[in-house]
Amino acid sequence: MNLEELELIARSVRQENAVYDYEVNVCMDLACASQGAEQLREALIATGDASDKKVLVRRTGCMGPCSSGPLVRVDPDEILYSHVKESHAEAIIQSLGSEPVPELQCDLNEHFDKQVRVVLENAGYIDPEKIDDYIARDGYKALMTALMEMTPYGVVHRITESGLRGRGGGGYPTGLKWGTVAKAGGDTKYVVCNGDEGDPGAFMDRSVMEGDPHRVIEGMAIAGYAVGASKGFIYVRAEYPVAVSRLTTAIREARRRGLLGNNLCGTTFNFDVEIRLGAGAFVCGEETALIASIEGKRGTPKPRPPYPAVNGLWGKPTLINNVETFANIPPIVRNGGKWFASMGSERSKGTKVFALTGKITNTGLVEVPMGIKLREIIEVIGGGVPGGHTFKAVQTGGPSGGCIPAEMLDLGVSYDALLNVGSIMGSGGMIVMDDTSCMVNVARFFVEFCMTESCGKCIPCRAGTAQMYRLLSRICEGSATMDDLSLLEDLCGTVKETSLCGLGMTAPNPVLSTLKYFRNEYIEHIVHKRCPAGVCNIQAPVEVLA
Amino acid sequence: MSENVEVKTLVIDGHEVSARRGQTILEVARENNIDIPTLCHLDGLSDVGACRMCLVEIAGNNKLLPACVATVSEGMQVTTSSERLQKHRRTILELLFAERNHVCSVCVANGHCELQSLAQDQGLTHVRLPYRNPDLHVDASHERFTLDHNRCILCTRCVRVCAEIEGAHVWDVMGRGINSMVITDLHEDWGSSSCTRCGKCVQVCPTGALFDKSKIGTSHPKYPDFLPYLNLMREAQ
Fold first, then answer.
1. Looking at residue A249, which CATH number applies to its domain?
2. Chain B 141-170, CB below 8 Å of chain A: which residues?
3. Is the pLDDT of residue B2 over 90?
4. Which end of chain A is more exposed for a tag (fewer CB within 10 A), N or C?
5. Are A504 and A458 within 8 A, CB to CB?
6. Under an 8 A CB cutoff, do B88 and A456 touch?
7. Residue B155: closest CA among chain A residues belongs to which residue?
8. What ipTM was assigned to the predicted interfaces of this complex?
């Protein structure tokens, strides 16, 4: 395989597609599929075949606004239909070439206009199980370019120049990480893709792996070339069976096309990828625990340093990046580091995919340039809080993040800005809460999550989160005192500062951030024994008659 | 000693000390009679950095580092005791006492318990946290020893000594978070497990979780000092 052959494949795909006058793309991501997208697609194919129009019906990955699903986009006119049912198939096929179906058309222009799609550029345009679809949209061009025209150092330099930071949550500069692994000694090195997405309400990585799996594989192969590794592992949670099957197909297809395996592109570079399944432990998203899990051991973290970049999988230098980080690599290599660095804010470059969930009109996946105001994401792209309720807070970063109150909606989204207000960027979960949410209860939910997902190795996380949960439960039940509150704050400090890994270190964040911005709600629960949002079931205190 | 040993100098609690490259802060501190409290660490076993008692402050680093695994570097300035560290150490001990049922007065390890001694050293006078009082069982199926989960602090010394020194790997940890437990084999009774009855785990257990049935009352001193000697003799072979 070389660049010319890639171009041939791309051209033949375009020729095949040119036969059709219309392309009907059906979103087959989980949310749409659960509402009957499969039957809809079959109906569209049947109706399309029966009509005299030349129609290509294609299944695609997530198009974004999941709450409007099942979604159908008709090309070349780019007409988006929402809430499409099987019975609408005939109307859609009939409308081709004339006026669009009015009752299905949706007005999501504002939703899409503010977005910039880099990671999701192919989402909704390719069939995830067809490698040729990906190649026709410049797929694997970056890998070929890197192998033929760049030195490994040049690739690392381009990534460094782009200013890309780890999308898994920590925000560590990707170029620096690659440089460290590239400089580490030894013949055997590994590249690991972290697909153990576990934050409640986050599904960015699932969408990328399911909708555009080749992008991840290409990113990993480029990384392998840059750091000198010939073996890659994708660690996916077993709860994502579709992602696993799409990736398996993608790896097989890539091998068949000579895009994985030995002597790629006629060079001496070899690279292959294997899938490893996670067994449902949140902590295995932590890199040292993930390594232990791949090695077949109990998934518990180890103290760092030594970092995996020096001493990782089976003691070898290992590069670990998140799915979204790898998905950013091919466009950076194709378009250059400066192109990527031109997007975003000063210290956070590029775009970020967020999973918008909770009390918001347009639930789903969005990709926005860094530095965009939270208000724009929630009110414009997300369509605001539905049902006449008022916005109260947005939780970013999952159980490791914090709640950001309404006063701070004009904050520009970047790693540093979110850290400054007591939250984190995290992997991209964004849970919107309205006036019906009790912030103490929200904090308790996340602490409960951390408590049950703690591995139990270090004491502050194992016993500390359990005690925090206990104290928060007392507050929610109305049996706490102000002493309990100060004890809780004290405990948060110790768990945050002394835990072994990121899970424990960040577990107090939901409590600390709600205490910072919604302290009055805690006081209401403790002193006045009432829940302002009416969520907690507090028994009225028994009045003692004198 | 080989010729290419690199020597580092660093400052621990204001004392200038020298160390070989690759040594941990804990090793160097103890060589110089500076005490850092530990619980999961034991000379002769690998370190896991789990108990967080040995956390120390490093100048210029916001994070606290576990002295048992953090290695020395040139010019490092280490503080092993400060108000912040004391507070965290006491809270961690409180968490341990409140986690399971540690009732010193009726414990076989009373007077010989590392958890008890540490609490005394750190000036822990009372526990502010609510006791969890979990319902845990006692495994007395082994002919010589008893496992009392009520006293276990999950330091995993037994797991490590069995795997690394005895080479049997009978002990392991099951469950997650607050429900973690040490188990023998695949959660079988200790008595019917593949235990070699060497008793090393009992000697290294810092509390009364593992004890010898043949001892009466609280006369249960433990002797974990054999490990470094054993390792030395094995290396010499």
1. 3.40.50.11540
2. 153-154
3. no
4. C
5. yes
6. no
7. A457
8. 0.93
pLDDT at A542 over 70: no
- Contacting B residues, span 33-92, partner chain A, CB-CB under 8 Å: 48-52, 55, 64, 66, 69-71, 84, 87-88, 91-92
Question: Among A456, A465, A491, whose Cβ lies nearest the Cβ of B91?
Answer: A491
Count of structural domains within chain A: 4
To test the contact with chain A by mutation, choose from B129, B153, B169 the residue with the greatest count of A C-beta atoms within 10 A, namely B129
For residues A464 and A247, is the Cβ–Cβ distance under 8 A? no
Kindly determine whether residue B177 and residue A454, on different chains, have CB atoms separated by under 8 Å.
yes
List Cβ neighbours of A160 (8 Å cut-off, separation of 6 or more).
Answer: A173, A175, A176, A178, A179, A337
pLDDT band at B87 (very low <50, low <70, confident <90, very high): very high
Nearest-5° angle of CA A112, CA A115, CA A120?
95
Task: Say how far apart CA B163 and CA B156 lie, in whole Å.
Answer: 11
Q: Give span(s): CATH 3.10.20.740, chain B.
A: 7-81
- Is residue A206 domain-resident? yes
Q: Read off the pTM.
A: 0.93
What are the chain A neighbours of B88 within 8 Å (beta carbons)?
494, 497-498
Task: Compute the average pLDDT of residues B186-208.
Answer: 95
In 3D, which of B168, B237, B229, B222 has the Cα closest to residue B196? Answer: B168
Instruction: Print the domain residue range for A72.
Output: 3-113
Instruction: For B125-170, write each residue's pLDDT tens digit.
Output: 999 999 999 999 999 999 999 999 999 999 999 999 999 999 999 9
- Express each pLDDT in A245-282 by its tens digit: 999 999 999 999 999 999 998 899 999 999 999 988 99
Residue with tokens 């009372």, as numbered in its chain: B126
pLDDT by residue (tens digit) across A310-348?
A: 999 999 999 999 999 999 999 999 999 999 999 999 899
How far is Cα A220 from Cα A185, in angstroms, rounded to an integer?
Answer: 20
Q: At residue A507, what are phi and psi to the nearest 5 degrees?
A: -55, -35
Average pLDDT, chain A: 92
| Cβ-based contacts under 8 A for chains A and B | 101
